[in-house]
Amino acid sequence: MQAWLCENPVGVDALSWKELPTPEPGAGEVLIEIQAASLNFPDLLIVQNKYQMKPPLPFVPGSEYAGVVRAVGEGVTHLQVGQNVACLSGTGGFSTHTLAPAGLCMPLPPGFPPVDAAAFIMIYATSQHALVDRAQLKAGETVLVLGAAGGVGTAAIQLAKAAGARVIAAASSDDKCALCRQLGADETINYSVHTPQTTLRDEIKRLTGGKGPDVIYDPVGGDFAEPAFRSIAWRGRYLVVGFASGPIPSLPLNLSLLKGASIVGVFWGDFAKREPKANAQMMQTLATMYMKGQIKPVIDQTLPMKDLPKAYAIMGSRSVKGKLVLVN
């Protein structure tokens, strides 16, 4: 097998494409021949030693991938050799083969292409857990999605529309706003024009008739958090999804009191571990929605697996719409 190996987590430049022995699966594991792997923001942080999970060195990055089961370990009964699966295991994806815990593998229905499958779990599981489970989104409510042209943002638009919500999508360019409208957003905000320091709050107020959004989906953090939260509706729910802009914001808690609003943490990874049955049901729901054509990952582009450094550079430029996927 071949893999991108991180022997020293000082950044992307330290990764090397190496030939390694193909491993045998242990108890509870499967060997997957990887067809496609997507690039997520944590994949950048982990090779910079900035992610909360710090795998033992050396390791192969790549948190999310899809492929074919080539061998099963002892005790694995729900997966068979030759079966197509998707997996989000945190590491191992930027390679030709990897070992994965069988319990983390999502069996794929026939007709689910590997490129879409590799870009599916993280964005849709996060967004469905956020909007439906944590925010209890109801039909007719208004959702403001920040960072709406990124992976989780594009998923949030589709899932919010499927739930019957009105969606306001905020993104950083006219091109990205146009994509959001194609995905079903009812209104868009270009926040390079309506910046957090100037008219972002005014534009949110205008688009909601002064009421404010019922739910704010925030994977961005930084300077966007406080003006967005100040704009929230009475009994609104502010979903803390991530901090793609870098800084972790501080919010004055009196704002929560004044609006009767909730600040709601979204940690899908721990939800999946702590509530595996609920997560499995949710993943089945999402797979069914995909097969019915209700949701579909936005793929910015696909690149050969050997072009991983180029993919990292593209992601770092913040020009990506949806997901980047690497293929073998």
TrEMBL record:
CDD domains: QOR1 (cd08241). Its EC number is 2.3.1.41. The keyword Acyltransferase applies. The keyword Acetylation does not apply. GO terms for molecular function: 3-oxoacyl-[acyl-carrier-protein] synthase activity; oxidoreductase activity; zinc ion binding. Keywords: Acyltransferase, Transferase. Pfam families: ADH_N, ADH_zinc_N. InterPro entries: ADH-like_C, ADH-like_N, ER, GroES-like_sf, NAD(P)-bd_dom_sf, Quin_OxRdtase/zeta-crystal_CS, Zn-ADH-like_protein. Residues 11-326 form the Enoyl reductase (ER) domain. This is Phthiocerol synthesis polyketide synthase type I PpsC.
